[in-house]
Amino acid sequence: MHDWPAIAASLAETLAIEVAPQPAGRVHGGCINDSYRWESGTGPIFVKVGAVHALGAFEAEAAGLKELARAEAVRVPKVGATGATSTAAWLALEWIEFRSPTGRAETLLGEQLATQHRLMAAQYGWERDNTIGSTPQLNAWAADWVEFFRERRLRTQLALARRNGHAGRLHERGSLLLELMGAFFASYSPVPSLLHGDLWGGNWGADAAGTPLIFDPAVYYGDREADLAMTRLFGGFSNAFYTAYHGCWPLDPAAGTRRTLYNLYHVLNHLNLFGGGYAEQAASMIDRLLAELGH
Predict the structure, then answer these.
(1) Vertex 162, ends 160 and 164: CA angle to 5°?
(2) Catalytic residue at 198?
């Protein structure tokens, strides 16, 4: 149980508004931190609460939402503030009333995501590290995309999996893939686009006006194919979304050959967070990728 009076006092002081002494109710959907509706003198606010050590992750999430807002493309929740008590960290965001997305919302999401991806950087990465779920995500800038994705994404997850007891064939075959993965980019060099970074079906919705929103980002600048690949990993996106996106900015004809490579990062992360059958799924994906390379 959280120390609600202390969190309420911290919220009130930081946001400079009156807040209720405890949240009005739990908001379901997240699996890493707890989220709540909290009444205030200016209306309800959305408050995410975690352990004290989560403050850095909340600060990075807030910075990521502000970076996405800078694209003036897909709507994101407005950031209130972050803060901490002696026992908990919190992130306060705009409260949004969600409705079931319509086909029009999915079309808008596709169009607006293509616009977001046109906000670019000079290199791959971001100005700060953040998290993917609760796993640290390294974003140090790199001039080469293959190096960035190999070292900052796949190698870090494989090393963590090894420390978590998933060594053996998974690590051996994964290491071989790291050596050879440059072949998937022999005739393709992506631009560094602003990515949501964790764009699965649970991280988007539509507001009461039918406007699409994205939230819970793991922002960095990278290959836009990585965002599109994850939309297909756990479902939640319709043909209307893909048709709209491709109508604004078609993908490279060979994008499908890299989809498994990009989604391997997220499956490895799920293995490191949750264990279970993700080890078998990751191993199968690695074998499939190596088979395409003749190994």
Answers:
(1) 70
(2) yes
208 and 73 in contact (C-beta within 8 Å)? no
At 254, which helix (H) or strand (E)? none
Inter-residue contact 53 to 32 (CB < 8 Å): no
Catalytic: which of 198, 216, 223, 227?
A: 198
Torsion of CA 69, 70, 74, 77, to 10 degrees: 0
Domains of the chain: 4-96 (3.30.200.20), 100-292 (3.90.1200.10)
pLDDT, tens digit, 9 for 90 and up, residues 50-106 = 999 999 999 999 999 999 999 999 999 999 999 999 999 999 999 999 999 999 999
Exposure string over 164-201, b if 16+ CB within 10 A, otherwise e: eebeeebeebbeebbeebeebbeeeebebbbbbbbbbe
- The pLDDT of residue 31 is above 70: no
**If you search the block for the tokens 């930081």, which residue do you land on?**
14
Six token digits for residue 184: 């998937």
Packing angle of the helix pair 278-292, 168-180 (nearest 10 deg): 40
Per-residue DSSP letters for 224-248?
A: HHHHHHHHTTS----HHHHHHHHHH
